[in-house]
Amino acid sequence: MSSIITLEPADYMTVAMARLIQDGERIFHGVASPMPAVAIQLAKKHHAKKAVYLSIAGTADAVPTEFSRHTTAGANLREGAVSEFLLSDIFDLSARGGLDVAFLSGAQIDEYGRLNLSAIGSFQQPKVRLPGGAGSAALLPTVKRAILWKTTHDTRSLVEKLDVITAAGNTEYVITPLAIFKRGKQGKLQLYSIFPESSFDEIVEKTGFKVEKHPQYHVFEPITEREWELLLEIDKNGSRFSEFR
Amino acid sequence: MSKQTSIQEAVGTIDNGALLALGGNALHRSPIAFVFELIRQGKKDLSLIKTAGALDVDLLALAKSIRSVHAGYIGFEMFGLAPNYRRGVQKGEITVHEHACASVIAALRASIYGVPFQPIHGFQGSSLPELTGLIKWITCPFTEKKTAVVEALRPDVAVIHTNIADEQGNAYIDGAVFEDLIMAKAARRVIITAEKIIDSATWTVQPQIPGFLVEQVALAEKGAAPGSCAPLYSIDEKEIHRYLENPQAFLERKVVVSHV
């Protein structure tokens, strides 16, 4: 690259998501999911050309040319699609074992890759009422593998104990601004990779559950020139930054 | 006979305490004009059904028009949390019937099929079934497999904002239909609002909602604004920010409440 660029966590996280998508997989993201939306297109243009993109916008395999900084359920996510495939079809697909990847998130995530999007405090008398888990309670146990992400990495987000278990199931990876976790022995998340600006000690300090290295632990491969070009081309509006405030 | 009426008259048929399914998803093609009119007429104790709700649910929470919400997600996506819904729940004024979006759909399907409940694959390991009572576990009488079931949700009224409708209630949605066709089939009554009302002899596209299911149809130009109604208009970001900064001032600008 000709000029020096400062990479942001959103850049690492989006590229990390894209790299975890395999060719031919059927992939879903829901509301408020700008990084997954961009990452799916990045994967499809980079190494997973036959991956199938499914979203709330209700079509199979759209090729959006623009991403919003406010929504991931809009008409832009229908662009270039040929056939209809509704949200209800996606849930049915997952229920019968036909959905490969779902991108999901939570306000809290625990070491089993379970998530809370329901409430902080008790469910019945919450200190903070959260939006709700959207599709996650049905998708997480039925999708083949879920990739969770979280835009903050601290002991309030990655917790020992969830206030409410909104959803549990087939979490394979959790991606944060600092690191990637992968499910390992006894179904527990283990440290899979660290992004360049972080360190093992920082991860341990900022994670609410015990951090152990995954057998496949490795240094995050630098973002390639090709990935970077595609990322800029796909996400012209910088929608990937819109979850960070 | 024409089913066309005004939005005021259509809202006038809604009883306090009614169970309403609202079409659209998040900030897209929700029946916002209808919601404003519900608030103007001072409707109370409503219960709402939505897979993913946003401004529609939050406005009704602000106006203290709702007592409960059946939904998978209520929030403004990347704009942030739904402040009035959140406050209403935290104060104990609004009961959250927290579903997964898929179980809202399954509950509506039970009504479509005319059965009291619907099996659904999911919820293993989730605390929601125990916390909400909405999901119960039964043993399949054929396979003896443990299966989650959800009780039928039969909306009193489904309110769906569409691009084009005719005077007989046939209605066309340009773009994502979301869960609207499911809501229309599950509800006791269907009210359509539309950006444009045409003569039924002049259709050039095929309506997805058949008029025989629809009771009333009302014109509502920009009826989903400041949310989107593709391809006519997208989310008015400034208006959403204005709402979130001062919801009460936003509401007062839009609605003069008739009962105070």
UniProtKB/TrEMBL annotation, chain A:
Keywords: Transferase. One of its GO terms (molecular function) is CoA-transferase activity. It comes from the Bacteria. SUPFAM superfamilies: NagB/RpiA/CoA transferase-like. It holds the Pfam family CoA_trans. Gene3D superfamilies: Glutaconate Coenzyme A-transferase. Signal peptide: none annotated. Belongs to the 3-oxoacid CoA-transferase subunit B family. This is 3-oxoadipate--succinyl-CoA transferase subunit B.
From TrEMBL, chain B:
It holds the Pfam family CoA_trans. It comes from the Bacteria. SUPFAM superfamilies: NagB/RpiA/CoA transferase-like. Coiled coil: none annotated. GO terms for molecular function: CoA-transferase activity. Belongs to the 3-oxoacid CoA-transferase subunit B family. This is CoA-transferase. The lineage of its organism: Bacteria, Bacillati, Bacillota, Bacilli, Bacillales.
